[in-house]
């Protein structure tokens, strides 16, 4: 097999281009970042994308983040962007787990297979197991509060205005990203509703006696419920883009610069 003459960084950029990740200036005031996935293999790519374009991001007046088609992955993928888009800390509602034998067995298996460098995490999971075993069949909040504050220190230099483009395919951690971003005073969400799948999560496989099929069920529900449901509804955009808008990026550009 012929050897590539590309450096490791060049290979990462080629992979990013192939999957549709990108960052470019649209004008003297506005920059576009395209993030089609937050899946685990792309965390390093997103980190590199932001790092390589840090000066452009810090110097632009307006930023468009296109997450259309992003079905999620991990919340780790977008943390590097928060100092540039958030104007304040983020309020996150907690969750409560349904204590069940399947959940407890899964956590015990994790404890046995966890690495030696995860002592704190193992101790936390052991505490959870104890709570679940004492409350089988009940919903359990493993935290001391029903909400938490995620402190975000805004970058000293960052865009003044941010537009995030969303559509019906935005889900999971990408939907979580949109929910967090909506708390920023300088962010507008434009597009259509997201997929609507944040109320119940942390799915596990359940054995229900039929080997030909796998049953996957969530193990927790959000403490936003029942007051603020998202499932089958989605996150509502601030600016709805109907079918007559053919070029969403151009619409966002004109909106920001008009």
CATH superfamily of the largest domain: 2-enoyl-CoA Hydratase, Chain A, domain 1
Residue ranges: pLDDT <50 for 5 or more in a row? none
Radius of gyration based on Cα positions: 21 Å
Number of helices: 8
Q: How many beta strands in the DSSP annotation?
A: 14
Average pLDDT, all residues: 93
Task: Describe the largest sheet.
Answer: 6 strands, mixed
Structural class of the helices, strands and pairings? alpha/beta
CATH fold name of the largest domain: 2-enoyl-CoA Hydratase, Chain A, domain 1
Q: CATH top level of the largest domain? A: Alpha Beta
Strand order of the largest sheet: 1-2-3-8-9-14
- Report, as a whole number of angstroms, the end-to-end distance: 53 Å
Order of helices and strands: HEEHHEHEEHHEEEHEEEEEEH
Give the CA-based shape: globular
List keywords for this structure.
single chain; 258 residues; alpha/beta; 2-enoyl-CoA Hydratase, Chain A, domain 1; 2 domains; 6-stranded mixed β-sheet; 4-stranded antiparallel β-sheet; 31% helix; 20% strand; Tail specific protease domain-containing protein; ClpP/crotonase-like_dom_sf
């Amino acid at each position: 097999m012929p050897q590539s003459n590309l450096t490791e960084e060049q290979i990462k950029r080629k992979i990013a281009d192939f999957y549709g990740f990108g960052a470019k200036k649209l004008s003297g005031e506005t920059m576009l970042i395209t993030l089609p996935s937050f899946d685990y293999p792309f965390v390093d790519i997103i980190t590199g994308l932001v790092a390589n374009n840090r000066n452009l991001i810090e110097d632009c007046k307006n930023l468009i983040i296109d997450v259309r088609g992003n079905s999620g992955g991990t919340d780790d993928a977008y943390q590097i962007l928060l100092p540039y888009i958030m104007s304040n800390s983020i309020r996150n509602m907690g969750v409560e787990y349904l204590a069940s034998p399947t959940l407890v067995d899964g956590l015990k298996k994790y404890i046995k297979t966890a690495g030696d460098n995860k002592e704190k995490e193992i101790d936390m999971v052991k505490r959870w197991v104890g709570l679940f075993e004492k409350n089988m069949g009940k919903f359990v909040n493993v935290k001391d509060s029903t909400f938490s504050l995620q402190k975000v220190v805004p970058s000293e230099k960052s865009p003044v205005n941010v537009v995030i483009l969303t559509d019906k395919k935005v889900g999971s951690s990408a939907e979580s990203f949109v929910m967090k971003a909506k708390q920023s005073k300088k962010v507008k969400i434009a597009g259509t509703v997201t997929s609507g799948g944040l109320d119940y999560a942390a799915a596990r496989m359940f054995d229900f006696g039929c080997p030909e099929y796998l049953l996957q069920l969530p193990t927790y529900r959000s403490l936003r419920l029942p007051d603020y449901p998202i499932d089958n509804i989605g996150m509502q955009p601030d600016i709805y883009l109907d079918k007559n808008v053919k070029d969403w990026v151009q619409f966002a550009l004109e909106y920001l610069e008009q």
